[in-house]
Design brief:
362 residues; globular; single chain; alpha+beta; Immunoglobulin-like; 20% strand; five-stranded mixed beta sheet; 2 domains; Serine Threonine Protein Phosphatase 5, Tetratricopeptide repeat; 16 helices; four-stranded antiparallel beta sheet
């Protein structure tokens, strides 16, 4: 979340304090700002969000509905920003005793920011009532409300807790996703695809059953299904490959993998290339990938699949494939010295291997 936490900075808190004071004259701007800035630098993005919520609550009326009346006019001022999520967060924290009123508030607030995290508190509180609301939202005319139906009910929403009921059995949420499977808004379709990708992690066959029953002649539905299957395709799931028409057992002649370096240092690049020639008599649909077996701190290796290209290779045709990759540390990966194996993957099968030594200075 890095520098994103700086969305909640001194300027924001002074601005919000003034707005809250104008809505509610008893709101003490100085106390709010002092509390917000105390030790702010050490707080993460989500910690800053939660502190904002609790500081607002300390000075707003204890009557939840009255507090909502004060916050509601401010939400449009933060349209399209993460900062505005303090308003649905307030509902998630303090509105559990006002179930229906809170769900209405989340539907309103999500139009300007997103209620995806806050609504999960109500899934924990009363799963079926919240799911009924999500089903209704999935047919709403507002794209943000429709997205909330999908995003808020994801089994494994990032930055939030899991909805274990749906991790174990995703079937209750299928009507919601069925309503959204051909949504006209890419913003909504991405959420549906990500939701299905969540499901594929725990229940791949169920997810594939669902998208197999959908009409892929509809472009929007086809896009969702393909994007939802990205993790399964990376894992070379046979049924996922078959669903999207990839040749099950391709007839190919693949040249040895050529690596530009047999040894490289962290920060340097590796060039990889090979050729693929069809030995079949009919066109073959191919997904060409490669796997790097990264050395872990323990000395064991962990494979990661990278996508290269997809194509239909005519009978007797040849395709030249090349890729350059720089090996450097970044937020989600630390490299360790040792031999790194590389595999050529075509439709989930290994068609060639190579290796190189990675040097990492200490």
């Amino acid at each position: 979340m890095g520098e994103l936490k700086n969305w909640f900075d001194e300027k924001f808190y002074r601005q919000l304090a003034g707005q809250l004071h104008r809505q509610y004259s008893r709101f003490n701007r100085e106390i709010f700002i002092a509390g917000a800035l105390d030790g702010l630098e050490a707080l993460s993005l989500t910690e800053r969000l939660r502190r904002t919520t609790t500081l607002m609550a300390e000075q707003l009326p204890s009557d939840f509905v009255r507090a909502l009346d004060i916050l509601a006019p401010l939400a449009p001022l933060y349209e399209g920003t993460f900062k505005g999520m303090c308003f649905p967060d307030f509902v998630g924290m303090y509105g559990r005793g006002h179930f229906d009123r809170s769900l209405d508030a989340l539907k309103y607030f999500t139009r300007y920011s997103s209620s995806e995290f806050a609504v999960r508190e109500f899934f924990k509180l009363d799963f079926q009532r919240t799911l009924d609301a999500a089903l209704e939202w999935s047919c709403d005319e507002n794209r943000h409300v429709r997205r909330l139906a999908s995003e808020g009910s994801r089994p494994r929403l990032p930055w939030s807790f899991q909805l274990h009921t749906l991790v174990q059995d995703p079937s209750p949420v299928r009507p919601v996703l069925d309503n959204l499977k051909s949504d006209t808004e890419i913003y909504v379709r991405k959420s549906v695809a990500n939701h299905l990708n969540d499901i594929s992690r725990d229940n791949p066959e169920i997810m594939l059953d669902w998208i197999s029953e959908w009409d892929h002649a509809i472009p929007e539905t086809s896009w969702i299904s393909r994007h939802a299957s990205r993790s399964l395709l990376k894992k070379c799931h046979p049924r996922a490959f078959a669903l999207f028409g990839f040749t099950a057992d391709p007839s190919l002649d693949v040249s040895p993998l050529r690596l530009s370096r047999t040894s490289l240092s962290l920060g340097e690049g590796q060039n990889m290339s090979f050729t693929v020639t069809s030995t079949g008599t009919v066109p073959q649909k191919l997904a060409i990938d490669y796997t790097v077996h990264y050395v872990k701190k323990s000395g064991k290796r962990a494979p990661k699949v990278f996508k290269l290209k997809e194509l239909v290779l005519a009978a007797g045709a040849t395709e030249n494939v090349a890729k350059s990759q720089t090996f450097e540390n970044f937020t989600t990966r630390t490299h360790y010295a040792g031999r790194h194996d590389v595999d050529i993957l075509i439709n989930g099968k290994v068609f060639g291997t190579g290796n190189f030594e990675l040097r990492v200075s200490t």
